[in-house]
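User: For my dataset I need records formatted as: sequence, then structure tokens, nothing else. Please produce one.
Assistant:
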Amino acid sequence: MEYAAIYRMGVETLKAAGIEEALLDARLLLEEACGTDRNTLLAHGDFEVSPRQEECYMDYIRKRSGHVPLQHIVGYQDFMGLRFQVSPAVLIPRPDTETLVEEVMFFLHDGMRVLDLCTGSGCILLSLLRYSNDCVGTGSDLSEEALETARENASRLGLCAEFVKSDLFEAIEGKFDMIVSNPPYIRSGDIPGLMEEVREHDPLMALDGGEDGLGFYREIIGQAGEYLYPGGMLFFEIGHDQGREVSEAMRRTGYRDVKVCKDLSRLDRVVYGRF
């Protein structure tokens, strides 16, 4: 079958399954199955797809039609210009989280010690280490499966970081110049209404922030000062409607220069302050 024809078949199948980004997902999955790029569809639509490539592509399409995230099908997600392996044990890296990394980088200097709580795939910590010099990084997570994914990502990127199984600060030792976290922040009652790709395929422990979505923020803010050097900084990713509550909690705990930052959609996305 020709490349353009099998692409159209994939698009129609995904549309029938209610996949919003059917055009994009069908193209990306075809490129993954055939080892091609976006130019192939534009310039070489008559390219003959091999039976093996066709079988692989249609398997991808069947999975995506069942609302399996595209990233779980191909096994990776690009983030901050780097490729990260993902699995059902980790939250898929989102473009919104790049705002957190970019804000941290404004203050990150060579040789600093960085702690990433709820590290998941390690995308935040490893991005910071890749784009800095001689920084020392520790990532913690309660999931051993997530830590295995983070370690694999560090190895694939040629980066050195320590990954520790810990319930927040429980197994953390020493002090740090910066603590960063993208903790679970979705209200428990909101989880049934999430997209199926998120609700059924992202790990619940990476989503559920408790009744008001703020439980992890309160716990981290209450303990982080013990693990920060004087003048050290605490950075959070937040939900779009959590900026006021999280920033006020930081101020009440003694943080200064507290700031709420917006993402590219002009929604509140990051809160940080200095201890």
